[in-house]
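Exercise 7. Predict the structure of Short-chain dehydrogenase/reductase SDR from Paenibacillus riograndensis SBR5.
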Amino acid sequence: MSQQQGKVWFITGCSTGFGRHIAKHAIDAGYKVVVTARNVDQIQDLTAGYEENTLALPLDVTNQGQINSAVAKTIENFGRIDVLVNNAGIGYFGSVEESVEEETRKMFEINFWGLMHVTNAVLPHMRSQKSGHIINFSSIGGLTSFPTLGYYHATKYAVEGISESLAQEVAPFNIHVTLIEPSGFRTDWGGRSSVKTDTAIPELKQSPVGQMLNAVQQEAGQEAGDPSKAAEAVITVVEADKPPLRLLLGEMAYQAATHKFTNLLANIEEWKETTIKADFKK
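Solution. The predicted structure, encoded as tokens:
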């Protein structure tokens, strides 16, 4: 077994989507893998036949007790955690004006606070072993925004910002942080993994809000992204000597990101003089 294959992975949200695909690929690659989901019955098939190198644990990332228990059981069984994949998350569709606070707060609890609570439970072990790699699932929606996804974007922008700070803080301990930023993939993200607002403002139906909702519904199951190839990309990043802080996944993600930052740079340069004049004179 190679040194790479000896690594222990801890993956959240393995019942469907990216988490399930990453777990399968990591197990097939010979890694030790801890797969987690709110309903542990939905992930038992992933570990069947691989009991020596795998562990299936119940984990709701909004439950601190379950987080502590899952991390403790991982350390008890495998002695370390080398790769943390923070994949668990949900989406929410609705204009900023229509969105329901109770639902959007729930999304923040999962997408942001859940991710951070798991991270903070794992970090002491990574610091102690002076190595590790944290994979935080963001989105192309963590870099650029679209109508009907304002609160979802807010959760992912938060993940982006804290991951940048975290990467600088843990670098002295030989711990890497990578943000994964996919565009549309066939993970049923727009279906069972998302909530759509029940409220509706008539004036918005014919606006970009309504158009975006219709586009998402029509594209469901036909997205360009292949989640199996995304899982392969994550393993490639983990095995890299110098892993990136960010990895875009999907052609649409590449196009949207380059469009955003090309326009952003142009805007910065256009207003450069006004920007610089805001300082005290030297």
